[in-house]
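Exercise 3.2. Students should predict the tertiary structure of the chain below and write it as structure tokens, then compare their answer with the key that follows.

Predict this chain's 3D structure.
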Amino acid sequence: MPIYPNTVKNFKVLNAIGTTEIGLATITLPKLTFEKSEYRGAGVSASFNLPVTGNVTDMTTTLDFHTSTQDALNIFNGQSAQIRCVSSLWAWDTAKGASAETPEEVMMTIVSAMYDLGKREYASKGGIIIEATVLYLALYYNSKKLWEIDPFNNVCIINGTDLNAQTRINLTGG
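Answer key:
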């Protein structure tokens, strides 16, 4: 019988070094998309934009804060920062007739590209927004690293498979 994942039960956005929350925030995690290359020519009666597996497009993340915090302000400094989004994912296991929770962690090295100071209105949230480019991403699901995206080192591991292993061998002459 299946397990039905239902919801993110709770999450925190932390600095990567320790357990310090960087503020009360919601986060939009990166969308992963492979670069595409057009495939067309003689003998093919169509054209395709096929993914170049292992090569990802620009990854971005967005953090929405209620107000400015010192840790949020420190992210927008022209340098890279490391953040973690840790979540508890809640699901219903139909075989056991009970709920279960699974940990998920997304670690990112980011460079902030935009800081929106939001608005100020009496007794309300400020709506602070930070947009950042993601330079490195690792996804841990149930405490096991499943994804690692590191374009600078030509690493693209998806579900435990290193899509760029042969590329690195080819580039080193080995």
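Discussion points: The radius of gyration is 20 Å. The chain has one domain: 3-39+48-140.
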